[in-house]
Amino acid sequence: MSGEESVLEAEGSVPTTAESGGSGAGDSIGDSPLRREDARALRGETTYTDDFGREAAALAFVRSPHAHAHVDSIDTENAAAIDGVLAVYTWEDLADGDSPMELPVSTGPLDCEVPGHPVLARDRVRYDGQPVAAVVATDRYVAADGVDAVEVAYDPLGVESDPVAATDEGAPTLFDAAPDNVAAVGELGDREETDRAFDGAERVVAVELENNRLIPSALEPRAALAEFDRTEGFTVTMSSQSPHGHRRKLSHTLGVPERQIRVISPDVGGGFGHKGHHHPGEAMAAWAARDLGTSVKWTATRSGNYREGAHGRDHRTTAELALDGDGTFRGLRVDTHAGIGGFALGGGGAMPGWYGRLLASQYEIPAVYCRSRCVFTTTAPVHSYRGAGRPEAIYVTERLVDAAADELGVDPVDLRRKNLVGADDFPHETAVGATYDSGNYEPTLDDAVDAVEGAPRGGERDDDGRLRGVGIASYVESTGGGFESGVVRVHPDGGVTVSAGTHDHGQGHGTIYAQIVAEELPVPTGEIEVVEGDTDKVPTGTGTFGSRSTVVGGNAVAESARSVFDKARRIAAAELDADPTEVEPTDSGFAVASEGAEECTFAEIAGAAYGRGLPEGLSPGLEATTFYELADTAYTFGTHAVAVAVDPETGEFDIERYVAVDDCGVRVNPQIVAGQVHGGVAQGIGQARTERATYDEDGGLAAATMLDYALPRANDLPDIEVRTQETPSHNELGVKGIGEGGTVAAPPAVVNAVVDALGVEHLDMPLTPETVRGAVEN
Amino acid sequence: MSGEESVLEAEGSVPTTAESGGSGAGDSIGDSPLRREDARALRGETTYTDDFGREAAALAFVRSPHAHAHVDSIDTENAAAIDGVLAVYTWEDLADGDSPMELPVSTGPLDCEVPGHPVLARDRVRYDGQPVAAVVATDRYVAADGVDAVEVAYDPLGVESDPVAATDEGAPTLFDAAPDNVAAVGELGDREETDRAFDGAERVVAVELENNRLIPSALEPRAALAEFDRTEGFTVTMSSQSPHGHRRKLSHTLGVPERQIRVISPDVGGGFGHKGHHHPGEAMAAWAARDLGTSVKWTATRSGNYREGAHGRDHRTTAELALDGDGTFRGLRVDTHAGIGGFALGGGGAMPGWYGRLLASQYEIPAVYCRSRCVFTTTAPVHSYRGAGRPEAIYVTERLVDAAADELGVDPVDLRRKNLVGADDFPHETAVGATYDSGNYEPTLDDAVDAVEGAPRGGERDDDGRLRGVGIASYVESTGGGFESGVVRVHPDGGVTVSAGTHDHGQGHGTIYAQIVAEELPVPTGEIEVVEGDTDKVPTGTGTFGSRSTVVGGNAVAESARSVFDKARRIAAAELDADPTEVEPTDSGFAVASEGAEECTFAEIAGAAYGRGLPEGLSPGLEATTFYELADTAYTFGTHAVAVAVDPETGEFDIERYVAVDDCGVRVNPQIVAGQVHGGVAQGIGQARTERATYDEDGGLAAATMLDYALPRANDLPDIEVRTQETPSHNELGVKGIGEGGTVAAPPAVVNAVVDALGVEHLDMPLTPETVRGAVEN
């Protein structure tokens, strides 16, 4: 960070107008101007969904205390009689209307026909905390009283939270359509060819591992404020990563056309994938707002958020690597049980397209076969969480490579290096049909290895008696899927409004998009505002998740800016009485290059665009809209290296060194890239050492509060050293996404280091003191 | 009107989503589906600016009781001390900041450099009611108390409200830069050639007349609710015909970039040009909102609206027509003094481009010369009012033609017919360079004349002793100036949102634009919503005035719809595995014409557009934005015929018959066209018989309330018979505007009829009983 200007003085925010000021110098692609988003947050001026609608009625849910039960009866009478309770709803009320009031079933291919998630339980609950009834009251305190007064009679059924055990005979069945609880079996790769590779292999190494179930823990819980107007339709202000995606989903659930729903997403206090998913709260609030003719707000409690909000990960995997005697990889065979919870909402990231395609990672593996079973368990539904299938895949591969090195008695770095896809082999098509756009893997491996060169390892004891270990994890990550809209609108006074269908919730889109547009147009970033988060203000959008915003949103915005540039240059040429090809951009407009004299300012060009006397063939206006889609996603990659020191007495360990070497192509704003790496690594370390959504034997979520669910704290986190390399991708900006790399690389790197320190074969995450101490003792 | 469906059941509204339902049948161009706008209004669900911001602070103005005075001192102390008064502002407060806080000077060419209209008087007031100080208080009652408590010391100066007298030597001077009060002299046509035509003419006929000053009387007075946020900038909700225009003007006055201002215009209760103009209220409210950090609302009182709001017309004209002995027109010479009030805000419609270009009307006149003097008078500023220069021009010509017929002793119809531009002479270029796109004048004249065939005239007395007269007025009207934006956005579920930069305030854009889009796309109107009135939701816009919305907005929307159609057809072709040229639209999608079998619904196409696997070369999304501008404006024309019966005892007269024959090209919705004609004729009759903004000898507006300013009432208005003809214009839809034709044709038609009944040479409007009785007596 430059340190020369204060964050509070520097920049504006997103969405911003009044404060989009900036210097205009040093704000090009590759510079790191201060984030314009930060001043508002530091001043406490950010406004989250719960800051709106202070007069709105409050919605609260009656939640099932059982993980699996028949709902025999619901008595709402006492609740409805409470002064200030406006309505108490059960499924019977919702079933009256035309609205489906069922969250849509997973878009992934399922092998069975199961119903969607009812907004209120139909006659059965399938996970602890499932909404059974809804109370709307004058305020949230009365609503809570109402919730307490609803009497529900349950008939408990059997529970099973483990996705492997859930497929056992005798396990409780969640849906008749899936008697073995398997919702879908996804296969990727050629099974027979892979089996042949294994049959002919000199060595086969196997690991069995769990990718621990995690709970996305945004600081701001989910929230929605719903309003209904007979003319305007629904307006739903909600904490969303994907306003247009939520509009589409609400359209399904409410049974009304998309044009009758406006979704506004104001400041969002963290998302991590979780806020791209559709939950009962927003649909119930909207339905109640229409029913009651008043605005209705729902803000999740923390435990409600934890119990009902979509969780992440939850894989149980057996993986095998076939090698030649010299360590050349011949085949990879993976079998995964992915717990998807009590309803099929998103496939849990287990479907082949999300997971299996990355298993080969950076390595040349001629035969890969992956089978993923999506399994219903009596738990909260699982959906994509920062990384979404990528961390699960890379964790498998990187643990397996270390296990193989151990078994073969070779240096895990050498084993990796031997099998890397070569720098000349791009675009590279993998055995399962993924096409890596560009890459240069070995230098990032070397750089990471260099960084921990000389660090004690292999269980060496240091002066404090701590066992030392070093871990390496290399990865690839597919980024930038789907399409995105980007609008660049020049106002008559030359100011610019940029909008995109992505939605910032910490990423810094306002800063980045302004840099991208300022690179294309002779306008300083301070005159460029960025607008997101309102389906009425943005043409359409996919949203922000999957490390996609800069890749697809950035390229959409850039392409629109180039269109605007071309038209502006034609107008400038007319104003300067020159041929467009002679006209070149200056700092603040256009001039005839050869003359270097008269300049036409960008504001003058904008004025002319909306005025009279435009050159023949040009229509008025100066704006462009682009819907951008990558032909193939862009594959970010890198290697992280970790050095640990394990206290064998307590099972605690310190991360002595953490070096992240990532290559996400062209970095629009290196400081923001570094911030993304820091955040991702912190979350990855959280998975590796502290977090696990544990269900107790009755099926209750044991970690339903922030006291019980162990997020990493500052003292769990090391200094994170960020190193970079830039191998451009093939899109126009040359960019790849970096939002998730840290969550992908950190878990295997940390586990590999601790495993190295302890000299064990494997340890499942999280590496709590109890787990580590147990391994030391064995 | 079909009468088969109730307005309340039928359609939605604008802007609308939830209620845009409609049958989809009989909603094509040329049909008259019920207006979707009406149900909300009839149910009382419309929301005007004053319905918002109920918690906002209230702004009220201290207004000058003098028409012309120095402001010696302003004592705000007592006002500021009132409990609930938040602030009292004078010019000194405004001058402190960076904002100009002066409404911009007329965009027409001025011959002198004069300042803009200060939002609060600088040191001098120039018309009765000019804002001198502003009070912001907790509510409007306290604000009114505050206004009463402000003490202003004035030093009165001389007043003059007549634009001819204001140019006399000795008249009080408003600005040193214009010592004779002439702000601009506009000339159009070749003076010498015209003089030669007159020199060689056998007959010259002259009239002297006044086009009476009018006050736009929208039911909803001007209003603005201003909010300021350090991040979002200004949001100004206001009663505007042109949200983007007001954003641009506010940008000037507040001195902030356009991107930092959002203008929202909700339901607007009448405009008539007036609500396209920039007034002090919205600027002062915005400035105060920022200054005080609270939302501030200003709603004009009726008298404040009348005294300070821009007025219309106010011409004093001498006009001469040169003829051959056989009645062939040889030349037209016009000299006009146009009062523009105390500040130069809009040129009063007097500038040659607005006024002189229409003087030749439907006639072949080889030489035309017009001189217009824009004159400062100590009155409210004058700006465009329904018709905006066109009624003033046609009134001159049609009075002159009748006077010439009288002098030559020929039938005024014959004299008109003899000089009409022939049906084969289009496009027709006039002597002053206007190019009429298309026309066929004689049939409309014949039709109108036929309608009053046999009506007693020429002062014939009927059985009641009433003097009977018949009047004819033919006209042309330029419509559809400037550019407009039109967006057609298809949502993934196939619903359509249309937006345009125009703004409905009674015209029925929602109904019309939906018809236009349904004509191009296989989507029923009920699935098409129309959005206007928000600078954040609409790319850009010019606004609704000058009979332009269907012409430029409609064509913009149509062009976007055609772009969407082309892309939809390509997608359909891919879905149907056919060549795009083989694919034809059906009622609800596309099918291969030759096969007539498999159909691809529009919703499926929309889904595909936002999904994966689009045909090569197509980017995702299904929407288009068009900025449409006519090469030349479209000239509507027609003839109105009136039969009157004058009571010589009372001076009252009845309009026995009113026939309007108008040709506005293709009529998208004939019922709405008829409604526009009705409204325009009513307003034109108001000018002809009751309305006049009279200033007293002290310069005070004598007609500052609705009791004193005589709007026409139901009993002043006749049954209006609407007849039509359709001569398409050259734009893609073939449409011309019809919003103002009635205000253009009615005044001369009515005056010609009364003049015919009384056998006098001329009578100035308004034809009050006093005026008529005076004429009878003479």
UniProtKB/TrEMBL annotation, chains A, B:
<dbReference type="InterPro" id="IPR008274">
    <property type="entry name" value="AldOxase/xan_DH_MoCoBD1"/>
</dbReference>
<protein>
    <submittedName>
        <fullName>Xanthine dehydrogenase family protein molybdopterin-binding subunit</fullName>
    </submittedName>
</protein>
<keyword id="KW-0500">Molybdenum</keyword>
<dbReference type="InterPro" id="IPR037165">
    <property type="entry name" value="AldOxase/xan_DH_Mopterin-bd_sf"/>
</dbReference>
<dbReference type="Pfam" id="PF02738">
    <property type="entry name" value="MoCoBD_1"/>
</dbReference>
<dbReference type="InterPro" id="IPR000674">
    <property type="entry name" value="Ald_Oxase/Xan_DH_a/b"/>
</dbReference>
<dbReference type="InterPro" id="IPR036856">
    <property type="entry name" value="Ald_Oxase/Xan_DH_a/b_sf"/>
</dbReference>
<dbReference type="Pfam" id="PF20256">
    <property type="entry name" value="MoCoBD_2"/>
</dbReference>
<dbReference type="Pfam" id="PF01315">
    <property type="entry name" value="Ald_Xan_dh_C"/>
</dbReference>
<feature type="region of interest" description="Disordered">
    <location>
        <begin position="1"/>
        <end position="47"/>
    </location>
</feature>
<keyword id="KW-0560">Oxidoreductase</keyword>
<dbReference type="GO" id="GO:0016491">
    <property type="term" value="F:oxidoreductase activity"/>
</dbReference>
<feature type="domain" description="Aldehyde oxidase/xanthine dehydrogenase a/b hammerhead">
    <location>
        <begin position="43"/>
        <end position="158"/>
    </location>
</feature>
<feature type="compositionally biased region" description="Basic and acidic residues">
    <location>
        <begin position="33"/>
        <end position="43"/>
    </location>
</feature>
<dbReference type="InterPro" id="IPR016208">
    <property type="entry name" value="Ald_Oxase/xanthine_DH-like"/>
</dbReference>
<dbReference type="InterPro" id="IPR046867">
    <property type="entry name" value="AldOxase/xan_DH_MoCoBD2"/>
</dbReference>
